[in-house]
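re the bet — no i am not wrong, look at it urself. input seq straight from the record:
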Amino acid sequence: MTSGVAIVGVAQTCYEAAKDHLAYNELVYEVVAKLLRETGVKMADIHSQITASQDMFDGKTISSMSVNEVVGGYLKSEAKVAADGLQAALYGAARILSGSFEYTLITAHAKESESRRPAVTVSMFDPFTQRPLGLHDAISSGLQAERYLHVSGVTEENMAELSRRRHLDAKKNPLAQRAGDFTTKQILESPQMAGPLREMMVSPSSDGACAVLLASAERASAFGKRAVWITGTGNCTDAYWTERDLAEARALELAAAKAYKAAGIRNPAKELDVAEISARCAFEEPMYADALQLFDGDPRAWIRQSAKGEGIAVNPSGGAITGNPTSVAGLTRLAEAYLQVSGQAGEHQVAGARTALAHAADGICGQGHTVVVLRGNSGN
């Protein structure tokens, strides 16, 4: 089954700790120019643009205006999503399904190097009782990790084992920021971030951009096996972080249920070939994989299996833990899922990948989640 929206091309920058030589518009120009060049689509034919960025990280209000002309938004229907780029992709897909547009260009960008992440993420917290305490996302993630490890039985050694595997996978991805054959000892002895989380268990500060081109069924027909179909989507936002059990990802369970129902998937662990999960911290991956129904049972057993490269392929690109910036990480997961299903993932290609999942997490301790299921054309 195919829906009326397909991905026909993607482009990413290399993800780096700092791209000092590029302004925001130059950063986005790199991926837009590459995308148009590789798809052969002219900017004049794209009348719908959705950008994803964060004013606080860009250091300016209406941060999309920095890239508006680069994405071709001048005198066209351009909109901004102040959230993860995967949500922007859902917005773009809805525009095509409305029948008003044949193409939608989705971009996401961020330069975390030009700000101090704690000073930015403190703004997410309650201004009266929590901000004065100095809370920021690393601290809340540390608290969530403590809770998840207590409930699940997952250990710091398990997190190190999973982190080691993802950084090893990233060696096959030329765009990955932090990659290498690290030992679990190196990971466990890296500087403490918060609670049980060590530096090598958390995504580093990152600069980069990603672009995805969506097309209607009529336009997608010209792309053959390079057209990959969006067959299911889901999005859900949970309560504030102090009003829910941080050891669970209930919003992700609900978002995944919607996406699976639309895509006709009953057993995700057997029907999905690849899952690109937005896990910026090592403990998030088993928690999110559980909510996505990618395993049934002890998460420690799943971590051991996944660390050996067994079972469903999760984050063969290395994943967000190896370095993807805010607002870009989820769109990167979509781009990587697309590359897998279209057979263009290069050295980290999963053999026979036909169905893939892309996931994004947003807000404090994964308050909001987005899930997209992709299927390739016959003959991929």
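see?? DSSP finds 13 helices and twelve strands in the chain. told u. also Residues 105 and 213 are 5 Å apart (CA to CA). so pay up
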